[in-house]
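Researcher: Structure prediction, please.
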Amino acid sequence: MRRYIAEGLYEYICEYHSVWHMPGHKRKKFSDDRSSLDMVYMDDLLDHIYTIDVTEVQGTDDLHNPTEMIKSSEEELAKVYRTFASYYLVNGSTGGIMAAVSACCKAKDKIIIADNCHKSVHNIAKLLGLEIIYIPFSDSDYLQSVSVDEVKNICARNPDAKAIVITSPTYEGIVSDIKSISEIAKAYDMKLIADEAHGALLPFIAEQGEHKDIIKFPQSSIYLGADIVIESLHKTLPSMTQTAILHVQNETMDKDIRKYLSVFMSSSPSYVMLCSMERAVAVASGWDYTTYIRELKDFRDKFKFEIKHFSLLDKDCSDKIFAYDSTRLVIRADKIEDVKADKDENGNLTIEGSLTGAALESILSDRYGIVCEMSGEDYVVLISTMVDERKDLEYLYNSIKEIDENFDSIISDRKSIMSDSACHNGEYIKTTIRILDTLEGTIAKDNIYVYPPGIYLVKKGESYTEEKLDILRRYVRSGKQLHGEL
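Model: Predicted structure follows.
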């Protein structure tokens, strides 16, 4: 049998990549030399991993009914995080979110969720037949915090709702006022679930108060009144992909949480993942963040004062942002126009427009080997974590600086700024735009989203308005693939 996965991984790993995406360990090792990387080395790595890939047999423990090593480790987690209980998740935050919602709501109950919630929230709501009440975002702009006033008004109109789900931080690092929202939830006897998948570093970095004069990081939802908090360790901590933790601060819900975790997680949990999570928390809780925070501050300051055509998202960008996680690097170009791809009379792809998020993502990847986490309509998202060093941030800064200094020539070179998907999938773009042009006023028969981040741009049952269709067209023209049936 040909080993396509190993060969593909080997080819990819041998290439140069400046990693600015999850998982948080950035494929860096804390020990050993990786200079002699080859297929034999990869097999050697697998052999080492196999030695700890055990299952629930005599002498080990059962994640769903822990009595020994896992029980002790999760008790230690609760001490580290100062929670009532904390649980390892071996299938990412998705399983944790599904367990959390199931523990708070019964079939046909009413639930309040922010309009930018991850698709997993919608999926479990659909499975339970829940009535969803959405917390809207003004101007259909997701680069803002959840409005506390909106939450207050919606709760007043729907006092029978059982739970509220808020994503904080968002994919772009925007944090909402969880403390105020938790107070509203308690006033109406609702449970607050915080999807903190992208904030796993906050419980540690925000707690080092001596660094607040350098960068002030927002507190984790764990300490602001949320009943349940779910964190993806693999996103911002040095942990393997598909690892997460669920925290419970409400003692009365703990039994139901444990029951539903066993429903939504594999009955054969990976000890490799468990070891990875335990190590990540141990490393993060004992890490001295001083150097990293200072390097991050220097990068953000240089960017702010020396880069002309790009800006970094932060709290000061909008009065609608309550707080911001400065480890998230969201780069926006000042000159953003719509990018249109079509074919001329000879069948050649023609390109009009300026620099979109997808185009900037393509430039960073193709010219500098910088792999972003994702691109939005007019920005790119890069994830910085505790393992980033000065050389990593300097390389990123110098690359942006070079693009900045040659901005006008890059803008004039239309084809060079288009993403590969836009250049090579002109027929998809043309066909999809043609379909979108026929949908105004019709009802969506499926949820439509771009992944990442997995937020529903149009929800099943909603009407296709011209505003929503314009957003979809811009994503498609920039080379993004729409998920869901139009």
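Model: The radius of gyration is 23 Å.
Researcher: Thanks, that helps.
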